[in-house]
């Protein structure tokens, strides 16, 4: 019996003490508890299309590795996934590039800076700190551009396959609005190009990058899509291998240290799960070996992460006694 | 039976597939595998006393939460624990300050900078990024100075109790050598004082801080001392509660995002354990719920972390299939 | 008689003690004295077209406000004036914009940074430090683009008029080479656009900017062209007013504090004249009220200023006892 | 006769056109013109002793190289000269150190930063940008400490000799208040020490440095004291040589590029004279070869320079047609 083996199986004892079976009711209670936070954050307004979202939306969905789906609130409403798409692009790149190819062009360290700062990028000679800040994600988009014939279509098909839902589309209004306000990202791309860390024309790469950001998905779709990260690289939905178990572990490590902008430490401290947020108000969080969580509330805190969303994850982590620490 | 509940108990299935029982032999094999790295790093030389260490030392010790001790190599040789002492000081402060008192004076975010950079400290108005960079550790030392009558003696007794070994001492030569080369840390302290984030006279606080760094401990002693972090706050050795289970979880979160200087991301990616390194070449790593690991090899990589030590942890993580991700 | 009034007319006494009449021989002697420096600097190589220049070229020309021309060495050879063109563009902008319009978009302070750093630009929200670093010059080019129908042609005609020489042309090879290596300048322009400090399409503005840099002129032509700065805004050549006397004074003040990249202080200390350098190895220097000097030697020092050229100016300043201090 | 030689003697023609004989009335008119600015700036309040000054004080004094003294307003009231003392210390150091000794420890470039920033100091390895920012002035104070047996007394005697007034004293209340708020300057000193650019104990050097800042002098005393800078190194008062003519010229160059904190460019543009300001509201300005000006008004602009004082200098420069450009 493995749970006699001593140091390996902490979960047994653990379970008996603090864990609670997940239900839709628990999720509803958590949403009720965080609802008073609505009105205390700020909807992202750097592009007009995002600013028009209904600010008091709130939803959550959990997919266990066994395939059970739990949800509450506006869990089936689509929203702009924004930076969460950076994980999808990195996952795609892992399939067509070697680790050395990837990690020579982008590093794996937290930035300690605002998500779109150019200062560090200049000091560190055009090599972005990690693939989840804009600069890093744009490098990954450049890599996809180089090796995929139709990266935008490929990303969409990838999401369709992972979510099992071919109704997911790019929100063209958002994509166009992003492109109209893309000067800073263009500056980032040109700066990397000046250091030799950018291969293609800037504008088409940005177009593709912004389309990823403009994917419109619901919490339920996101939980399904990212289930491979909780399940050793294998999609819980279709049981297909997306990346290797080792790659899934590595991706979770990256998410844990770099996934929440300049708030990764605080999120680890309070929630204790690898995760990725977007300025659309979505957060995806992973309990490796167990479940994938997606939460959504459009109002952001000062670090650009969903205010009510991160609180909901903190409560969920405490309620079901699950974190990686 | 909770381990039937599905998504909660990942460890069961997990165990059946990838885990291997730990033995002294496994540890010896790992040390043999990393030994070729000796000679490829740099012993810390910023103070003469550290530069004199024997560069080819190599040791590892593991204490499971069940109290089994495994070890290999120079696991009983004492060395300068240096920054590992920052965890001890923070643990002490958690007992005498509220979270709000602590986290208003030091943050919880990775710095994205060299461990002793003053730039960020100035830009962020004297509030250090986290308690494991020098500035943050000096703030914690300042807090201890304010509320403890004899902080240096208190720290020593704390280590004696945790390790069960009253032979542990401060290496006076190292402490004095640190103090002679303390200008940059004095600059850091004075800068924080200019922002109102420092309460005591600078030199006595630095004296105490450096004494912590000058603690001479072995891998075995370290594994015992830090076992409370793997065991929900309770010392595996004497079964006394050091901090609460929640605090232990939080400390592990801090270690995972900030414990390895500017290499936390890389360490998470390769090793996948919360950990804390010191420029003496020691690293302590935690598998929450399972075991505490201490490794030592004096030669450092360019980020100031033990070169062979971090490789040994990477191999161990792979061999026994344990990480937090 | 005002020159008896005491404090006004320092020059009288001054003249009797230290000054020496300028001659072609003095200029030749100075060139001989600096010639040993040839071989100790570095020809600019960031674009291939510049790297091909003959490294041991050396020339100087002086035009007095009375219209006397002195020259020595390769004073009639054309070379790429590069950043010296920034003064021409700023002069043009002074004719079509009010001071408030100009100085709200670019400041007047030394940067304390490398000429093409983006860090300061981000920290200071897209407002460049001064019109002689790249960012500032690109803003000025953007302003010209907005209000001139054919800025490139206008600049050329302006230079023809000032130099009295319609053979001056843009070196198309250099301009094309600059454009091929324009990524960093594009990054700068897009960053300013992201802060709302850029009005036109980036590429056409850069094209015009680079054409200015690619003007091919000789020392003699430069001394004639910039004579208005020494002569209260009036061209010594054609006696036409280019800018007002106050504007000329202001331009000299800008040149004295910001004209020599990150070496303005050293240049003031050694030479004591307002001046502007270019990475083609040219430097124009002004003795207000007296003369305009142009010197050329392609090898640069570590700050990007002509090594032999700035030494020649230092010697000239000492020999004829003229500086602004 | 050299003043016939053409390009040397710009002053002749110049005089006939724009200059006006200086009188006390002109100075009074200028003060009346700037008086409306009183109330629009901020008295320095970083130390309590400075904050207590009467905010609406306004005075000006001019000493010509012929020894004529003009003055208006509160020109004989003593005030804290603060950073103006940096020029005195540098002058003293020029007498006991070679240029190489001085300029290897401090540079001559504008900082492009706030006067007490540590960022640049860290990036540039403990070598301050120039002797007029705090870091540079503290290095100079360290040099004086090394070679003078009683630097504080020496400075006082130096000022007595230059001003011809032995009633000038250190304001002990200000000096003590500075010392109480010296943390940031201590941080700067320790940081330089960590880079090997500081030789003595920090606190005694700071004590001396702050005493210089705490010199209490009037505009009249300042104009007399600094007359050597306008007069080729020779005191107008006692006709003794303080520094060489070349050194005076170099000092003026340093003042022109670095003397007004992060506003040297603006000051050159508007006033066109080498100058040095202090947060006590004083500014000393030099017209080389002609006169020394001191102005005082305690309220500062956002760059830390006297608001009404710098405006008065701008008006004076325009009225008498004198600037270096």
From TrEMBL, chains A, B, C, D:
Pfam families registered for this protein in UniProt: Glutaminase
Keywords: Acetylation, Hydrolase
EC number: 3.5.1.2
Record has Calcium as a keyword: no
Catalyzed chemical reaction(s): L-glutamine + H2O = L-glutamate + NH4(+)
SUPFAM superfamilies with a match to the protein in the record: beta-lactamase/transpeptidase-like
GO molecular function terms noted in the UniProt entry: glutaminase activity
GO biological process, any: glutamate biosynthetic process
UniProt-annotated binding residues for substrate: 83, 134, 178, 185, 209, 261, 279
Enzyme kind, highest EC tier: hydrolase
Matches recorded under InterPro entries: Beta-lactam/transpept-like, Glutaminase
Complexes and interactors: Homotetramer.
Family under the similarity heading: Belongs to the glutaminase family.
PANTHER family associated with the record: GLUTAMINASE
Family annotation (NCBIfam families): Gln_ase, PRK00971.1-1, PRK00971.1-2
Protein name: Glutaminase
Origin species: Vibrio gazogenes DSM 21264 = NBRC 103151
Gene: glsA
